């Protein structure tokens, strides 16, 4: 039992060992099977890759036997199996014999030296070419085994042959093109991708006067010497960026002469730019000359009084002038669009520039036949609805076109119609004129007369119709004159006018108390016109006006003398008042109470104002500017203006006005009377303050030049109406305005200003608009001491 138990355990152990070994073998077998499967898959994949590979293998054994791919055999045209070199050729199949022998030699050499093989072989009976590459086979093959790969390069070889042919042709064409470029009579060039000159022809070298092409390229001499956007490089860049041909018209210096060139830059696919330049100076000159000729013809046509329009063979407008557009009342821009003949007629009809017809389509068709009319010239008169009269002339042209002329004869027709009426009206007019009119011919005979002339001289119509000479009329005229000898003067005046062509005039008095002004005027036809105007009433009025003027002058002198005397008489009491007031202010009567001192101060101020007013009145009554006695001294006009401003500043402050001062350094000095000049400026400023509302603005400006100084006072006051402007410089005249008091209300300021300034050979200008303000300009010459 014990022995049996031990044997059983031993058997179990051995069985366990065999089971473990079997399991290990099973695992190993599975791994081997997986590896075998992977190898099989790899082999299958390699076989598939080999099947689609462009190259086919051929294995050469050391004993000279061959193993070839079946597809290779089909490509070589072999239907039999290949085991030896001889099987690869013969009977128009396989390889050509010399290529086969050369390949066998190369294989033998590679087997000995281990070098690689690279050859080309050709198939018999076809144009197929194979590229053979190979060398010793991989290590798992026996030593001396050679593996060759055959690649069909027939298509590549054919393409290579074509390319070789094209290269040869291109080289030949390039050589020809190079010679052509070099022989071209105009400059040509080539720029590389960096846009620097790389090639120029002989014409380019000669144009820039360089030594040779290498000299041009090395110094980068450009044909166009412009800079910026007009430079040659900029034009090439523009062509390269746009990818399109660029053409520019630019001036260039060719052989030292300025010429106009057409510069062309052509972008190339290589990033380079080729270009050429054509001299178009003669073309530009011809074009300019043609343009001037055409323009002169157009200007000449536009200056014609007749309108003209021309139609081409297609009946479209090819030319017209401005008179035609005006006569036809057509828009020149519309005519410039070359409308058709029928459209022109229709548009003219819409503008009422065609005669009214019953059937316009038929009339238009008749006019369309002018293009093929056998007549050389067709003339018609068109009477328009508004009474205008147009003369139309049509001329068919040899090329099938038509030329039309329009002449406005409206005035001629109207003048012809009005001429007879004018003659009748002239006779009726002459007879009804207030003046006595007569026309004497160059020989002194009476040519025309009116009823008034016959009545004044009491002449018979029958005698006048005989056209008597002026000598024959003198006795009849003498009987009617207060001074009979004046008739001879009339005769001499008529002769003087007709012979010497000089006008004359005079005055005569008739015995019946009438007075006449007469005149003789030469006429363009050589005759003389003799007119007599009855001035009896005007003579009487003139005498009355003369008497009135004399009386007014006497009254003005009386008024002036009265004002002057009153002014002188006022000085004596005013001086006494001022003197006593000054004594009171000085304390001669004792110390004054504060109120009394204020009263005395007011009296002194009133005395000063009244004295100044009397001086102004006397200055106005003393006469014109030439009668004023002036002191001559060097006057600082800038300081003078500031003193005047300081004087009137209190009045401006009272009215809350803004008084601006702008005195330029150029104001300078002048030689004159400082008191009169200062008063002139003060008068204008006082007026400006008086006639400007509260919170207004007054501005004084002063400047000058070498000859004169200009002082301008500007205000934004109430201004002066247009009808009142002529009165502003009249003495003792003023413009009534509410709220204006003091010196400005008396009308003294501006007349005194003008009188003082004109005494200095200057002048005063005033500009004003009602409600807009006033500007007074004082122009003061520098003068001399």
Automatic annotation (TrEMBL):
Pfam families per UniProt: HATPase_c (PF02518), HisKA (PF00512), PAS_7 (PF12860)
State if Repressor is listed as a keyword: no
Keyword Nucleotidyltransferase attributed:
no
Q: What is its EC number?
A: 2.7.13.3
Which PROSITE patterns does this chain map to? HIS_KIN
Residue ranges annotated as transmembrane are 6-30
Family matches, as InterPro entries: HATPase_C_sf, HATPase_dom, His_kinase_dom, HisK_dim/P_dom, HisK_dim/P_sf, PAS-like_dom_sf, Sensor_HK_Regulatory, Sig_transdc_His_kin-like_C
The source's superkingdom equals: Bacteria
Q: Which UniProt keywords apply?
A: Kinase, Membrane, Phosphoprotein, Transferase, Transmembrane, Transmembrane helix, Two-component regulatory system
SUPFAM superfamilies according to UniProt:
ATPase domain of HSP90 chaperone/DNA topoisomerase II/histidine kinase (SSF55874), Homodimeric domain of signal transducing histidine kinase (SSF47384), PYP-like sensor domain (PAS domain) (SSF55785)
Q: Coiled-coil intervals in this record?
A: none
Q: Which reaction does it catalyse?
A: ATP + protein L-histidine = ADP + protein N-phospho-L-histidine
The segment(s) forming the Histidine kinase domain are 565-784
Q: Give the protein name, as stated in the record.
A: histidine kinase
Species: Sphingomonas sediminicola
